[in-house]
Amino acid sequence: MSVRAAPTCPRCEASLRGPTIWSSAWHCEQHGEVYPLRPALSPSRAGMVGLLRGIKVPVWLPWPLPPGWLVTGFAAAGDERTGTQGCAVALSGPNPVGGPAEMVLVSEGPRVGLGARFAGLPGPDPGDHFASGLPDAAVRFGHHELPLWHVDAPARAVFAGEVMGTWLWLVLWPDIAGVMLIEPLPVRDLRDPGQDLDIPFGAPSPQLPG
Predict the structure, then answer these.
(1) Where are the domains of the chain?
(2) pTM for this predicted structure
(3) Distance (Å) of CA 41 to CA 31, 38, 51
(4) Which of 39, 152, 180, 186 is the most exposed place for a label (fewest CB within 10 A)?
């Protein structure tokens, strides 16, 4: 019988102290009270359904997917008490400039810190000088283009913006894969009803926890 990995801090990879009779929250030694980042959900329809259960933030998926790209897993931060306050959707596919690439879209409430974790930053947000100039990229949701700004991050391309009161982070490996954001990226919110998307799934992403 397999043993499921324990939740970790959404802002770092540290293990957490679970709820006690004195507190219903999860605690990180460094970051204090946090929403527990649970082990990744499988890249499958069952994994997607599991992510949508108790979700409190948008679940962004590029759609239509870029040619040759596959969905490679899901991750969620939160518990039964709080609901999911931050989530990640991982994908992989061909880099437009050659070789393979990976992408993670993170949606989260204020100060969750999940996006900064994937961006390789201390977080929990993009930093003091974020969004100080014109936007560098955009996603298209319905008939609206939602602006994103470039975030300096190590060995990857990172863009972030505020959408409907939540953070949207888009992280790509390697950094040259950021050329995929030259044009606005069309996205769907998987929470919206009436969507019957034939989503292709691939092998689990190494970027997701557990």
Answers:
(1) 36-189
(2) 0.95
(3) 24, 8, 7
(4) 152
